[in-house]
Design brief:
The protein has 8 helices and 29 strands. By secondary structure, the chain is an alpha+beta fold. α4 crosses α5, α4 runs parallel beside α6 and α6 packs parallel to α8. The longest helix has 13 residues. The radius of gyration is 27 Å and the shape is elongated.
Length: 570
């Protein structure tokens, strides 16, 4: 069984010469040094990396042109049909242009106000749905724009606006300049980082789609280091880091999770390496196994600097891109797309205010790796549960063992971020008690006033009531509230009783959670579930927290069921 953990390693740029005996005279030592630089393989070392361009790559697609102030691109790869994948190309004055991988413009969204940068994330919880989004920082009005990506688009309707310049609750920094999204693997929460162009610190906001409305809540301010003008931001969701490219100095590295124990700067690099002028666009080529690279635009000399994704972010290579100069924004994908089986880069060309696409294999040459299988993170049984999802093992386990069938069959989906209802919990609990293939008998009489006999869940509600695991949610009349959503605390009750029987009562709590008052009805339940390893803490530092009123998602339900049943996770 697994939880997401950051992968850490360290690399070095330069090979070290073997120790030489002191009897080697200066001439011999000099000769050895010269030979080691010419042919480092002779000494088991690596060549010194040059800051000069080691290759100039030709575009494979483009130019793609929208307005006259092109700046920053973003990429969305369709989960099952790569031919429906999309590129979002921003224009500071004209909004977002949507293109396919044949170079056709499909849509144009104009916010009628200046925007700066855009980014994409999948699996954002919007009400009871899990959707993919593209977001932009609207610079003049200090708003976060959020648009829904339609995976079933017909070519003319890929995007629809959820929040824009006139929405409420989506305020970010005035004159927002640097911007990126980050998605926390442990629970799917999506955050935005942004920074005003002039003075002002970088701030982090939690983006919520609760109730079908976009709202943002500030959760963090980065002020341990003074960071000047910075526009190129990128977050590495898988490894848990966020990077801010300060135009005149270098790249600052931080933990991306606002609940991390260490929120101070972790590293600083790209201060030299032959960079000319501003450090502008910053993008991530991310392989599924944690390998990959950061790619930085060196605007002043129209080159691009490549750094290791892991460890201390060692400098690896410089390349130039024909047809693209003075680049502001770029995006890179390790996933395959039509015409680009090895991944690709979308790069802004400033003089033409346009974009070109370059094959990653051409960029990599013989110096860099190309991700295996097109960088695909992959999915298991469900198209919406990739194998890097924190609950992948638990979801696969209860599906493969027959306990659940998902939330949709065409395509097969699990809806991991959807909040569990009392009707769904009845299925989980009854099968947890009686076995994966159990189906309760259809009731002959209507037991609950709010559960009609023809409802799909009527036999499950009847079964869980007769077995003594639920008394319903009201007694006069007797009602079950089948569509009522569960909290984590309610989940603790259900799964503890699945483990210990319907009459189980937990011992008195000792008060281990900072956010659980001993006077609350659920205090003994969440402590007992935590002790039984059924219920995970939502925070461990600086204090232990349970978040008992948080929604019980279907992903968390899978985790609790595997733990309560003692199943062997995949």
């Amino acid at each position: 069984m697994r939880f997401i953990s950051s992968l850490r390693s360290s690399n070095s740029y330069y090979s070290r010469l073997s120790d030489r005996r002191s009897s080697i005279h200066m001439f011999g030592l000099a000769a050895i040094l010269i030979l080691s630089l010419i042919s480092p393989q002779l000494f088991g070392g690596r060549a010194i990396v040059s800051a000069e361009p080691s290759g100039s790559v030709q575009p494979k697609l483009g130019p793609l042109k929208g307005g006259s102030k092109a700046d920053d691109p973003a990429i969305w790869i369709h989960p099952t049909d790569p031919s429906r994948s999309l590129m979002f190309l921003s224009d500071k004055d004209a909004g977002i242009y949507v293109f396919d991988f044949s170079g056709n413009q499909l849509q144009h969204i104009n916010f009628n106000t200046r925007l700066n940068n855009i980014d994409v994330r999948k699996g954002f919880k919007f009400g009871n749905e899990s959707i993919d989004i593209v977001a932009a920082n609207l610079r003049e009005v200090g708003k976060l724009a959020v648009l829904r990506i339609n995976p079933n688009h017909n070519g003319s309707d890929p995007l629809s606006i959820l929040a824009g310049p006139k929405s409420s609750g989506n305020d970010i920094a005035s004159n927002s300049y640097g911007f990126t999204l980050y998605q926390r693997p442990s629970d799917g929460s999506v955050y935005a980082f942004d920074k005003p162009k002039g003075s002002g610190n970088i701030r982090q906001y939690l983006i919520s789609g609760s109730g079908g409305q976009i709202t943002v809540t500030e959760v963090r301010e980065i002020k341990d280091v003074s960071i000047g003008v910075a526009e190129g931001f990128v977050a590495d969701d898988q490894l848990g880091f966020v990077y801010f490219a300060e135009e005149g100095k270098g790249i600052h590295k931080y933990q991306a999770d606002p609940d991390s124990e260490n929120l101070n700067r972790l590293g600083f690099f790209a201060s030299a390496d032959g960079i000319g002028g501003d450090r502008e666009g910053l993008a991530l080529y991310a392989c599924a196994n944690g390998d990959g690279y950061l790619v930085l635009s060196s605007q002043g000399n129209s080159t691009f600097k490549v750094y290791d994704r892991k460890g201390s972010n060692s400098f690896r290579k410089t390349f130039s891109a024909k047809e693209s100069s003075g680049t502001d924004g770029l995006d890179v994908s390790a996933l395959a797309a039509p015409g680009f089986p090895n991944g690709f880069a979308v790069i802004h060309d400033d003089p033409g205010s346009q974009y070109y696409l370059y094959d990653w294999a051409d960029i990599a040459g013989s110096d860099l790796i190309v991700c295996a299988d097109g960088g695909e993170l992959g999915v298991g049984s469900f198209v919406d549960v990739p194998n890097d999802h924190w609950a992948y093992d638990y979801i696969e386990t209860i599906y493969q063992q027959g306990y659940v069938s998902g939330c949709s069959s065409e395509p097969l989906m699990y809806c991991p971020d959807q909040t569990m209802t009392r009707a769904e919990s009845a299925v989980f609990i009854e099968r947890g008690i009686w076995g994966a293939d159990y189906i309760p008998a259809q009731p002959t009489l209507q037991i609950f006033a709010d559960v009609a006999p023809w409802e799909w869940f009527s036999n499950w509600a009847d079964g869980i009531w007769k077995d003594g695991y639920s008394a319903g949610c009201g007694t006069d009349p007797l009602i079950y509230c089948p569509l009522q959503e569960h909290s984590m605390a309610e989940g603790a009750v259900f799964y503890l009783r699945m483990l210990n029987g319907p009459t189980f009562t937990p011992p008195s709590p000792s008060g281990i959670f900072a956010d659980v008052s001993l006077s609350e009805w659920y205090a003994p339940w969440v402590e007992a579930a935590y002790s039984a390893e059924i219920f995970p803490a939502c925070q461990t530092a600086p204090d232990l927290r349970a978040c008992p009123t948080a929604p019980l998602t279907r992903a968390m339900g899978a985790f609790m069921m595997v733990q309560a049943k003692g199943l062997s996770a995949k």
